[in-house]
Specification:
Helices cover 16% and strands 30% of the residues. By secondary structure, it is an alpha+beta fold.
Length: 776
């Protein structure tokens, strides 16, 4: 029996010198996938001229065409398959990278002032500008009428907190070397005097009252009249004259919907509402010019494609983990648009309390690995040093592009950023646990990531700043609740290789300007862009088996002066560390010599325990071995599966009816493995209980109308309650949700309790449908 409870309601070494920029000018064809591969938890991105066997084809952004390796051609792919009606490739000639900077909204909301804007701007200039931050965007609250949602849309008045003027504030931001940005909802207006002063510019009923009173404003610009278009043009000419170069225009889907439903009030009848909306955007674009950034906001205003530089792709975030989940959902649903049709903005990144340091790293990793628009929104001078360091590691946003050109219908746990730069081909992989209560673990299988069988990879932990070893087949990553690990994977060579730099999460793309090695790989030299007083690190890894290496000496020069340098050697790896007194370029040389390897005679373990994980997975555990080891080598069905650093591994995607064999042996970091280990054979179907809750299982797909599907909690994170009764197990989700489970034919009966959560106070209704094998 399957008992379900558902509540609905809420290697590579370089011998050449290249620049960091891509070797091709945009738009150019790039590798792509149009559906998931064997591992449905894998999300793939690229940076640089990457080539990988994971690609299912090549996308030509000019032709809007996918040519699959199996010979199929998908014409008008974005327009027809993905529903982007006005598809055209993003114009990167004016903004080659997504914006990076700061937004006032998610700390100050409407209680912002010129003094607070300048306080944050000065902090950015002193602490973050050299790292790539440039935009200072003032959000809602600068205008001087009202504090409500729709009654303060008067762009002719300035709040007294912004005396002596918005133009003066923009000038002061510019003096700091930063870009002034401004929020507004330009299609709306709340001041009737402004409406009277612009006859024919707004949608009015025959009696002269407003035909559209929404969040956007008490009045809405009439897109069909010259007066309406000229009103918008004059508004943005004034803002440009003030000195603003970045514009966030809010409420755009509301505007589109109102134009569709209120076309009877157009001054000129019979014109297409969406075409008229695009005309308003072109009016704005002409007024601000091509060198100023235009960001659409609220939801996903797809009719803005081809005119907007970027778009918010989700709802407003909030402080705390729930806010991160909003950004995660926006990334899963819309990432295929990023850096192809415009720059995605999943909303700002927050790092302050009550987010833990682990949660702050998760949010920063979302931004850093996807390359989406990157705006912080904390009161920056208040951040502690650890959170500032997290902030710096992901600035600026770089030229990352999705390889997966389709929306995700689940929250992926493995994000693989493939990088090709200066002859280095490597992966930076984010491993995530999004659950707030349960620990998890993911296995990185090298073949899942496109490496051939038998490949051995160096593994470096970016956030921990630590080398973990060189392993064959894969690596198991244990994860605490709401945490992530960022692991860098570099193929093992017979000589030292550069595995990581500490400047940026891309570990070389931002900072390395040149890189080369001698023919034996024992002398490495390069040039790095370094930042004043910021400790810079180069991490090298060595082949695990003798003969191996150690760093013998390093020399670093900046502006013709030799800098003090620290060389730290560990078994298997070395770190070169220095600090530059100026922001600029450092040239460096590192020489390596032979070193001995220490080996411990590893043993065990002697037994394993098995516990089913859903319907197609198993947790394998064993007692910790008393003697020293660097981890455990796990074999599945007579083949290497992964190495795990702890006495636990999760194995997923098994056939529950087939017999499987798992073997575990302790190992040392030179690859030595114990002669004997622990073995168990099993069939998952024999381990399963007779009844399971749906919340015990991982869905194949899980999409909510907004927000995320929650296990054992309501959609807003509270307890599950229906009709006064509390349920400890179940699913909470918002309306218009689709949740798909693969049950593998193991159960005979499905039972569910369904209802609207008590938190809605009786509002709403439910239509609940169950489909099996395509039949209702």
């Amino acid at each position: 029996m399957l008992r379900g409870l558902l509540l609905v309601g809420m290697l590579l070494m370089s011998v050449q010198i290249l620049d960091a920029a891509s070797d091709e000018s945009w738009p150019h064809p790039f590798p792509c996938r149009v559906q998931d591969g064997p591992n449905p938890d894998l999300l793939v991105m690229t940076l640089g001229p990457v080539s990988t066997p994971l690609a299912q084809g090549v996308f030509d952004p000019v032709a809007d065409e996918v040519r699959l390796h199996d010979g199929r051609v998908l014409k008008h792919y974005y327009r027809d398959s993905l529903g982007v009606e006005f598809y055209q490739p993003i114009d990167k000639s004016h903004f080659p990278l997504p914006p990076s900077g700061w937004c006032s909204w998610y700390f100050y909301y409407q209680e912002i002032s010129a003094d607070e804007v300048l306080r944050n701007a000065k902090w950015i200039a002193s602490n973050l500008k050299d790292y790539g931050a440039s935009v200072v965007q003032i959000d809602d609250g600068w205008q001087g009428t009202g504090h409500g949602l729709g009654d303060n849309r008067d762009w002719t008045t300035i709040d007294k907190r912004f005396a002596p003027g918005m133009d003066v504030l923009a000038s002061r931001i510019r003096e700091l070397g930063l870009t002034p940005g401004l929020w507004l909802a330009p299609h709306g207006q709340s001041n009737p005097e402004v409406v009277k002063a612009h006859p024919g510019a707004f949608l009015l009923k025959p009696d002269g009252t407003s035909a559209s009173d929404t969040w956007e404003g008490k009045y809405l610009v009439d897109p069909s009249t010259e007066a309406g278009q000229e009103y918008l043009a004059n508004l943005f000419r004034r803002l440009v004259d003030w000195g603003y170069d970045y514009f966030k225009i809010d409420g755009q889907p509301i505007v589109i919907q109102e134009y569709r439903t209120k076309s009877q009030f157009f001054g000129r009848k019979g014109e297409d509402p969406v075409a008229l909306y695009r005309k308003t955007l072109r009016t704005i674009r002409k007024a601000i010019g091509e060198d100023r950034y235009l960001l659409g906001c609220w939801g996903i205003p797809l009719p803005g494609v081809g005119i907007m530089n970027g778009s918010r792709t989700g709802g407003d975030i909030v402080l705390g983990w729930d806010g991160f989940l909003v950004a995660l959902n926006a990334t899963m649903r819309w990432y295929f648009l990023h850096n192809v049709v415009w720059y995605n903005d999943p909303d700002v990144m927050l790092l302050r309390e009550p987010l833990t340091l682990d949660q702050a790293r998760v949010w920063a990793t979302l931004q850093g690995l996807t390359g989406q628009a990157l705006l912080a929104s904390d009161r920056l001078p208040d951040l502690g040093p650890e959170r500032v360091e997290i902030l710096r590691k992901v600035f600026p946003a770089v030229d990352i592009r999705p390889m997966d050109l389709f929306p995700y219908r689940r929250s992926k746990k493995i994000w693989d950023l493939k990088i090709a730069h200066l002859g280095r081909q490597y992966d930076v992989v984010g491993c995530f646990n999004f659950d707030e209560e349960k620990r998890d673990g993911v296995t990185l299988r090298w073949q899942d990531l496109g490496y051939p069988e038998g490949t051995r990879l160096h593994v470096f932990d970016f956030w921990a700043d630590e080398y973990l070893g060189a392993f064959e087949a894969g690596f198991f990553v244990p994860l605490a609740p709401t945490s992530c690990r960022v692991l860098t994977l570099v193929p093992v060579e017979e000589h030292p290789v550069l595995v990581s730099t500490n400047r940026h999460i891309t570990q070389g793309w931002v900072d390395l300007k040149s890189l080369k090695a001698d023919s034996g790989g024992t002398v490495w030299s390069g040039e790095s862009r370094v930042i004043r007083d910021d400790p810079y690190e180069l991490h090298f890894a060595f082949p695990p088996k003798a003969p191996t290496y150690r760093a013998v000496e390093a020399e670093v020069r900046v502006e013709g002066k030799t800098l003090p340098t620290t060389v730290e050697n560990h078994q298997g790896w070395a770190t070169i560390r220095f600090r530059s007194p100026v922001t600029g370029r450092a040239t460096w040389t590192v020489r390596f010599g032979p070193a001995e390897v220490y080996t411990f005679p590893v043993k065990g373990p002697h037994r394993v325990q098995l516990e089913p994980l859903g319907l197609t997975g198993v947790d394998v555990r064993w007692p910790s071995v008393y003697a020293s080891n660097c981890g455990y080598e796990v074999w599945l069905d007579e083949r290497p599966y992964a190495v795990t650093p702890t006495n636990w591994v999760r194995i997923r995607r098994l056939d529950p009816k087939e017999e499987h064999r798992v073997e575990v042996k302790a190992m040392w970091d030179d690859g030595t493995v114990a002669k004997k280990g622990a073995v168990a054979t099993f069939r998952l179907v024999d381990l399963l209980p007779s009844e399971l809750f749906l919340s015990d299982l991982e869905p194949v797909e899980a999409t909510a109308g907004w927000g995320t599907v929650r296990r054992d909690r309501s959609s807003d994170g509270g307890p599950l309650r229906i009709g006064g009764k509390r349920f400890s197990r179940g699913l909470g989700t918002h309306a218009e949700s689709d949740i798909v489970y693969r049950l593998n034919g193991l159960f005979e009966r499905f039972e569910a309790v369904v209802g609207v959560d008590d938190e809605t106070h009786g509002r709403g209704s439910v239509v609940f449908e169950v489909f099996g094998d395509g039949r209702r």
